[in-house]
């Protein structure tokens, strides 16, 4: 019973893409025992945190539990898709519904809008469930070759080859996981439209508002558009926050990938990649952010940032089909 494991060692380090695809397709297929949507949610949580790993390819349980909680809050509370398990109710459903009731949280609140202290409590409860039912289950399905984990140390270490694979095929992995998760939710909740569910499963990682990032960036930099240099102002909401590398690829909000932009550039750029010379500019900008050592909020947001990460992100986004290059 792999889900009962408290420690999982990495069983193999060298893997080819073919080896990884073989195991990954088994996880998604009917050959894998899927009593709940947990495995899909863990894969989605990994994707959201791909660029947050440290030098040892590690993520904390708290990082994964936060993403995992957001996924299920969106599905269970925001969209009332509360059947996430075959048979008895999934523990995560009970945790989130109890929290909603206890703290009087409206159903239309997405997780990021909830009070921080409540978020911490809910994530802590979800993390306990992940220890019991999630980390070991996917470890068993992936034959112990995708990752290692340790409940006592609360760390999750990706196989470097699997990390590279997920970067190379990120868009495809996202689409496959979303589709199969939506199929299972459709079956469990007797919802008739798979397209309806795909929309709910896909729209998870984005925060409720980028306004806090906007205020932070305005505090530290001149009020000018990162792309065209136009002076920004709050009049008629001319100031926008843009994902330098499109959100639809990154699937998360990191300050080192966010820039201040005028409304025109933000609208024109849309889901495109900026010309490569802008990459040098954001690297310089991020170096400035890193040097603002007196600002604890900035320091926390930049913990796992490295210059090579955003270069890698830029290059992998092109490999994943984001090859429409934009310039102001």
- The overall strand count is 8
Described by the principal axes of the CA atoms, the overall outline is: globular
- The computed structural class is alpha+beta
Q: Could you give the order of the helices and strands?
A: EHHEHHHHEEHHHHEHEHEHHHE
* C-alpha-based Rg, rounded: 20 Å
What is the overall pLDDT average?
Answer: 87
Q: How much helix, percentage-wise, in residues?
A: 40-55%
Overall domain count: 2
Task: Indicate the low-confidence ranges by residue numbers.
Answer: none
Beta content comes to 5-15%
What does the largest sheet look like?
A: 4 strands, antiparallel
Distance between the termini: 56 Å
Strand order of the largest sheet: 1-3-4-2
Question: What are its keywords?
Answer:
two-stranded antiparallel ribbon, 328 residues, alpha+beta, single chain, 15 helices, globular, four-stranded antiparallel β-sheet
Q: What would you say this structure looks like, in words?
A:
By secondary structure, this protein is an alpha+beta fold. The protein has two domains: 2-202, no CATH class; 211-326, no CATH class. It is built from 15 helices and eight strands. A four-stranded antiparallel beta sheet has the order 1-3-4-2. Strands 5-6 form a two-stranded antiparallel ribbon. Strands 7-8 form a two-stranded parallel ribbon. α13 (277-290) runs antiparallel to α15. One of its GO terms (molecular function) is endonuclease activity. Pfam families: HNH_4 (PF13395). Keywords: Endonuclease, Hydrolase, Nuclease.
